Amino acid sequence: MRRFLTRLLLLSAALGLMSCRSVKEEEGDSARFSAGNSFSSCEYILKGTRMSYYTIGYNGADRKRVSTRKLTPEELAAFWKGLEDNDVYHWRSKYEPSGEVPYTDPGTWDLTIHKGGKRVLQCWGFAAYPSDADPRKTTSFEETDRFKRMFNLFILHL
Fold first, then answer.
1. Which residues of 3-42 are buried (b: 16+ CB within 10 A; e: fewer)?
2. What angle do CA 70, 72, 74 make, to 5 degrees?
3. What residue range is the signal peptide (predicted)?
4. What burial letters (b/e) apply to 56-85, b meaning 16+ CB within 10 Å?
């Protein structure tokens, strides 16, 4: 039964990520990050020079833009350099826990980056994050400093 619940949580997390809106760029650079659980989530979208923050209610309902801010050229350069310094372009496409998932509502997250209109990164995690030592490895159940630095890049530029 526990194994079934683990698989059900993994599937619902993946479906939840797929149901989120995506950033589609015809040209230019953009980044999208979302995180949450089945009760609520947040989404950050950088499109061109504008960073927007959204809250999303239960199971993807009630998506509301909370704020939008235009970044200065210096802030934009610092954002992209921060992503590069955090080695996000070497992150795996998915991060899943190595052990049994506790019966809770673990968090899911996803990150998508477009450069020059082409998707260069799309990754997601369910109760797992890129390791601090090596982003190609997984750390289960605890947010890593590497993950927090990436998340903070979006928060700090709002």
1. eeebeebbebbbebbeebeeeebeeebbbbbbbbbeeebb
2. 150
3. 1-24
4. beeeeeeeeeeeeeebeeeebebbbebbee
What lies within 8 Å, CB to CB, of 122 at 6+ separation is 93, 110, 111, 112, 113
Tens digits of residue pLDDT in 85-109: 999 999 999 999 887 776 666 789 9
**CA 86 to the chain's CA centroid:** 14
- What's the full length of the chain, in residues? 158
Task: For domain 2-156, give its CATH number from 3.30.1560, 1.25.10, 1.10.1740, 3.40.50.
Answer: 3.30.1560
Domain ranges of the chain: 2-156
pLDDT in tens, 45-70: 999 999 999 999 887 788 999 999 99
Sign of CA dihedral 10, 25, 81, 158: negative
> Rounded distance, CA 50 to CA 58, Å?
26
Distance (Å, whole) CA 127 – CA 125: 6
